[in-house]
Write a structure and sequence with these properties.
The chain has about 280 residues and is an alpha+beta fold. It has three domains: about 45 residues, no CATH class; about 120 residues, Jelly Rolls; about 70 residues, Phage tail protein beta-alpha-beta fold. About 25% of the residues lie in helices and about 40% in strands. The chain is built from six helices and 18 strands. The strands form three sheets. Strands 1, 2, 3, 4, 5, 6, 7, 8, 9, 10, 11, 12 and 13 form a 13-stranded mixed sheet that branches. β17 and β18 form a beta hairpin. The chain is elongated. The model has no long low-confidence stretch (mean pLDDT about 85).
Length: about 280
């Protein structure tokens, strides 16, 4: 626009006439042209601030809508005391959830992100496909298609592989471990990682039977609480004892007898409370 004005101005000022126009006359000429719309306007379309505001508002609304859809797809499954249940995931993979356990996942993003958050214990049968990840407080387990069991309670994290291969990432030490069928890896917070072997034919809690190999009695009694819906009370020195054996969740008294007799302990059942003491000699 400025170049156009200068060309007109020079032509008017330099025209060969006896009386060239004055600067004031030239300025009046331009003002008249502007008023009549004779001055050419620049080509192209200008973007107003109001248009930018509308686009920004639309993007915000879209983002809020997508966020709402994502969170509406969140699924949370809680399993109570003395019960188990099987959950089928969107891709037909299954989760057998033990007593007092919980899983979370998003059903809308499942086929793009097969990730589950677990608290407690569960047995997974995974359909082949993209990476399948189970996240817990102390570790993350990733597979492609296999079956495995995860125990994640308090400060203990344990993974058992039944079929395929399982990659376990332990969060506090930041270590990775790959295990195959019959291998298990366990980690207790602030303690070293342990790898052991087990019999894949023993499905343990899924069949209602619980096997223990030199484990603290405190863990065994916590299992009794979850499976029978009772509160177990004992002294600290009793909780530190080690137990090797098994019990079934079919009958409380039978289970307590199998636990207490080898350790020379006595038990008393008072409604929903179990008292375990040293056996009197």
């Amino acid at each position: 626009m400025e170049n156009f004005d200068n060309k007109i101005r020079n032509k008017l000022l330099n025209q060969k006439e006896s009386t060239p126009p004055t600067e004031g006359q030239v300025q009046a000429f331009f003002e008249k042209m502007d008023a009549n719309g004779a001055v050419p306007k620049p080509k192209g379309r200008s973007i107003s601030f109001g248009f930018i505001q509308k686009v920004a508002a639309s993007l915000v609304v879209l983002l809020v809508a997508l966020t709402a859809v994502y969170f509406s797809g969140n699924v949370k499954v809680n399993n109570g005391i003395a019960s188990t249940q099987t959950i089928q995931l969107p891709d037909a993979s299954t989760v057998e959830l033990n007593a007092h356990s919980e899983i979370k996942y998003n059903q809308y993003t499942w086929y793009f992100n097969r990730t589950i958050n677990l608290k407690g214990e569960a047995f997974f049968k995974v359909k082949k496909g993209s990476a399948f990840t189970v996240e817990s407080r102390l570790g993350t387990t990733t597979v492609l298609g296999t079956s495995f069991n995860i125990f994640s309670r308090k400060n203990k994290y344990e993974v058992k592989c039944y079929t395929g291969k399982v990659k376990v990432h332990l969060l506090p030490p930041g270590k990775n471990k790959i295990i195959v069928p019959g291998q298990a890896v366990s980690f207790i917070e602030n303690h070293k990682l342990e790898q052991t072997k087990f019999d894949v034919e023993h499905r343990n809690w899924q069949s209602g039977s619980f096997y223990f190999d030199n484990q603290p009695l405190e863990e065994v009694l916590e299992t009794i609480e979850r499976q029978f819906g009772v509160e177990v009370e004992s002294f600290e020195h009793i909780k530190k004892l080690r137990y090797t054996g098994y019990f079934s969740n079919k009958d409380l008294q039978t289970a307590l007898k199998l636990i207490c007799d080898p350790l020379e302990l006595s038990y008393t059942i008072e409604r929903k409370k179990v008292l375990i003491r040293d056996r009197k000699k």
